[in-house]
């Protein structure tokens, strides 16, 4: 318990220092729009969405870490759910080559757009966490995830510009989700390339998946393809900031 | 003696339910109905229950709908999870806000103390036994004895309001991923989110049983009088047994 508190405060300090290096991030962090989804649904459903998100974000405002488990609690056969192996020519080619040629473009409103190889991603500061994966369907399982904090990836790209509001992640199988800066700067928001001490298995989203621990499974995208920083999500596909909310699911998946 | 009715024993009207109680009651009816139906829709898409911190398809389950003749696919086809999730969280808010207004108003007006707290003599074993027997024989208090709630009513209302409803809210919150950061203690309190999910379903069944008995009681006591009192507040005291002869026409 003591040990956990120590790591918590340590990463909090790191977070503040890190966020300071990213122009704009702290500003958006204090903004009222951390309480609102990018596009509010009409009617009572929108009222309920705002109540849920605002109340939870208020309770989360100290950016507390999610519960981390003991190694002994790791689930033996972690389920492979939904997409297990994307039927995409380019992806299959990269898979055959052991993802040696895999590249992660980081673009949009960053100061130094870049493309990261898996090796380069692994050279960034690493964070390892044993957490619960919670599916909105009702199942949950525990695994150890290792990866680079999303904040570090954006820092590697020179930080974000002052207009930056959302980080949009696209996947190989056509999914996409937008994350506001409140979730982006959270220390446990990582691009995971390792699971339970090994490379991320194919069925769990190889080579890299997102861990955004305070959200349901459907925000934790597998098979990450690209990262783009934007000021608004209005022009992207359905305009709601994610494939799930485009299809009338909750954008904010903390509940 | 202007009309025939006044010749007979006049009806005894009492004002039984306050404004607040009546409005909140019907909001609970609507939101509880939506919560149950949407909850069933969510459940049907993953029709297994587990115990502890983790649980998924293939993990030892404490309840499987497939054991009851409905396969995973059939259950999934019956439920609409997206509709279920949207409406479950909408009516959870209606339920919580309504409950907050109801509880604070009634605590402030000391209504729980006056109407629902059983008196000492009501809690004696003899009295409780008598009430249970009366209920099983469908015999209900009449006349002045019907002014307030009987002891079984009082106890069941207190149980639902102060134990089961809060339990549903807490076990619901304990399933939310954000609460692993907001309050991991809440999840540990239940012994894991899967246990919280299972108990959420179990207590739903208990509450549905309560509703069924509650509705049966309304019919036993007189559905017109009961509904009228919950809508307008006015309640006619059932006449004493010995004066049961019909009113003259």
Architecture of chain A in CATH? Alpha-Beta Complex
CATH topology of chain A: Sulfite Oxidase, Chain A, domain 2
Strand order of the largest sheet of chain B: 1-4
Total strand count of chain A, please?
Answer: 10
Taking the alpha carbons of the first and last residues of chain A, their distance comes to 26 Å
Layout of SSEs?
The complex is a heterodimer of chains A (255) and B (249).
Chain A: H1 2-21, H2 25-30, H3 43-59, H4 89-96, E1 103-108, E2 114-117, H5 118-123, E3 127-134, E4 140-149, H6 150-156, E5 166-171, E6 176-180, H7 181-184, E7 190-195, E8 198-199, E9 209-211, E10 224-230, H8 243-246
Parallel strand pairs in A: 1-10
Antiparallel strand pairs in A: 1-2, 3-4, 4-7, 5-6, 5-10, 7-8, 7-9
Chain B: E1 13-15, H1 19-44, E2 48-49, E3 63-64, H2 72-78, H3 81-108, H4 111-116, H5 125-136, H6 151-173, H7 179-182, H8 184-190, H9 193-221, H10 223-231, E4 234-236
Antiparallel strand pairs in B: 1-4, 2-3
Question: What can you tell me about this protein's structure?
Answer:
The complex is a heterodimer of chains A (255) and B (249). In chain A, a hairpin with a 4-residue loop joins strand 5 (166-171) and strand 6. Chain A has one domain (22-77, 86-246): Sulfite Oxidase, Chain A, domain 2, CATH 3.90.420.10. Chain A contains eight helices and ten strands. In chain A, the strands form two sheets. Chain A has a five-stranded mixed sheet with strand order 2-1-10-5-6. In chain A, strands 3, 4, 7, 8 and 9 form a five-stranded antiparallel sheet that branches. Chain A has helices spanning 2-21, 25-30, 43-59, 89-96, 118-123, 150-156, 181-184, 243-246, and strands spanning 103-108, 114-117, 127-134, 140-149, 166-171, 176-180, 190-195, 198-199, 209-211, 224-230. Residues 1-21 and 26-30 of chain A have low confidence and may be disordered. Chain A is an alpha+beta fold. With 249 residues, chain B is mainly α. In chain B, the strands form two sheets. Chain B has a two-stranded antiparallel ribbon with strand order 1-4. The model of chain B is unreliable at 1-6 and 243-249 (pLDDT under 50). Chains A and B meet through helix 3, strand 3 and strand 4 of A and helix 3, helix 7 and helix 9 of B.
């Amino acid at each position: 318990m003591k040990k956990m508190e120590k790591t918590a405060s340590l990463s909090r300090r790191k977070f503040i220092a890190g966020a300071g290096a990213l122009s704009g991030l702290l500003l958006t962090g204090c903004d009222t729009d951390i309480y609102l989804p990018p596009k509010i649904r009409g009617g009572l459903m929108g009222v309920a969405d705002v109540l849920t998100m605002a109340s939870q974000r208020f309770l989360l405002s100290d950016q507390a870490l999610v519960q981390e488990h003991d190694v002994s609690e790791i689930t033996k056969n972690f389920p492979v759910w939904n997409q297990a192996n994307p039927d995409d020519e380019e992806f299959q080619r990269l898979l055959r080559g052991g993802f040696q040629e895999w590249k992660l473009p980081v673009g949009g409103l960053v100061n130094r757009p870049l493309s990261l190889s898996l090796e380069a991603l692994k050279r960034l500061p690493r964070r390892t966490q044993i957490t619960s994966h919670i599916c909105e369907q009702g199942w949950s399982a525990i695994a150890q995830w290792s990866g680079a904090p999303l904040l570090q990836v954006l820092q590697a790209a020179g930080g974000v510009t002052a207009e930056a509001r959302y980080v949009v992640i696209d996947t190989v199988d056509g999914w996409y989700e937008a994350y506001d800066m409140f979730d982006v700067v959270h220390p446990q928001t990582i691009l995971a390339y390792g699971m339970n001490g090994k490379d991320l298995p194919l069925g769990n989203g190889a080579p890299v998946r997102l861990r955004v621990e305070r959200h349901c499974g459907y925000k934790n995208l597998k098979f990450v393809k690209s990262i783009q920083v934007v000021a608004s999500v209005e022009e992207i596909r359905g305009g709601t900031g994610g494939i799930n909310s485009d299809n009338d699911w909750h954008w904010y998946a903390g509940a | 003696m202007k009309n025939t009715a006044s010749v007979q024993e006049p009806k005894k009207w009492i004002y039984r339910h306050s404004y607040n109680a009546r409005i909140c009651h019907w909001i609970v009816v609507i939101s509880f109905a939506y919560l149950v139906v949407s909850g069933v829709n969510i459940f049907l898409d993953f029709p297994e229950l587990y115990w502890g911190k983790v649980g998924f398809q293939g993990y030892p389950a404490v309840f499987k709908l497939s054991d009851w003749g409905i396969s995973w696919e059939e259950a999934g086809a019956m439920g609409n999870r997206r509709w279920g999730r949207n409406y479950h969280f909408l009516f959870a808010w209606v339920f919580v806000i309504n409950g907050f207004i109801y509880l604070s108003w009634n605590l402030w007006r000391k209504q729980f103390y006056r109407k629902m707290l059983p008196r000492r003599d009501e809690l004696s074993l003899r009295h409780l036994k008598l009430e249970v027997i009366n209920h099983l024989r469908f015999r209900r208090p009449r006349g002045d004895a019907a002014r307030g709630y009987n002891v079984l009513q009082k106890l069941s209302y207190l149980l639902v309001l102060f134990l089961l409803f809060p339990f549903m809210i807490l076990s619901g919150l304990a399933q939310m991923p954000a609460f692993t950061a907001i309050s991991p203690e809440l999840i540990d309190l239940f012994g894991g989110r899967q246990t919280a999910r299972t108990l959420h379903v179990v207590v739903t069944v208990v509450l549905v049983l309560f509703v069924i008995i509650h509705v049966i009681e309304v019919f036993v006591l007189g559905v017109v009088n009961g509904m009228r009192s919950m809508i307008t507040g006015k309640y006619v005291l059932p006449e004493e047994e010995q004066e049961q002869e019909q009113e003259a026409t």
